[in-house]
Amino acid sequence: MSxxxxxxxxxxxxxxxxxxxxxxxxxxATLPPLAFVVGWLAFDRSIAVGAAVAVGVGLIIxxxxxxxxxxxxxxxxxxxxxxxAALVAVYTGRAxxxxxxQLLTNxxxxxxxxxxxxxxxxxxxVVVGVLxxxxxxxxxxxxxxxxxxxxxxxxxxGQYTLRVAVYFVLWSSGAxxxxxxxxxxxxxxxxxxxxxxxxxxxxxxxxxxxxGLRHPRVLGESGEAVERG
Length: 229
Fold this sequence. Notes:
Order of helices and strands: HHHHHHHHHHEE
Shape: elongated
Radius of gyration: 21 Å
Mean pLDDT: 87
Strand order of the largest sheet: 1-2
Distance between the termini: 23 Å
C-alpha cells in the first residue's frame, strides 16, 4: 500500500467515536435516574425522597463537571433536566413519570433525525460537520451526503426508536426499577453501539479513494471531484 493510499485509508476510517465522544456525558446521565430508583426503594417508595436524591446527585455531578472545566451551559441544562424529571414525578404522584421526559425526548429525537434525512440535511452530517469546522461543505459532496444520510438511519432506529419502544412499555406498566435498569442499558452502551454501527455504514458507503470525513469533495467546473479541506 502506497503512502497516499495509507493516508486516505486512515482518514476515511477515522474513529467516529473520537469525533462524537458522548460516553462520559451518557454515563453521567444514568446516575440521577439510578439515584431516584435507589432513593425511592430505600425510603418506602417515597417519590419526594427519590426526587431529592436524584437532584442532589445531579448537582454533585454538575459541580464536578464545572470544576473539571466543562461548559457551564451544558452543566446547567443537564441539572435542569434532572430537576424537571423530578418535578413531573412529584406533581403526578407516579414514580414512573420521572422517566416521562426522557421518553418524550427520544420520540422528538427520532422524528427530528428522520425528518433531517428526508430534507437532505442528515443530523449526523450536521453534527460532525460542526465538530470539524466544515459548516455545510459536506453537503456539496454527493458521496458524503449519501453516507451521512444512510448512517443517520442507524441513530433513528438503532437508538431513538428502540428506546421509545422499551421505555413506553415499561413506563405504561409502571415498572420503575426496570426503567432504571433500562436507562443504564440504553445509555452509553447503546450510544457506543450506535456510533460503531453508523461508522461502519459510513465506511461501507464511501467509495474507494474518498479522502474521508475531514475532506469533502465537490465537483469543479470540469466535472471532476475537488477536495476541500
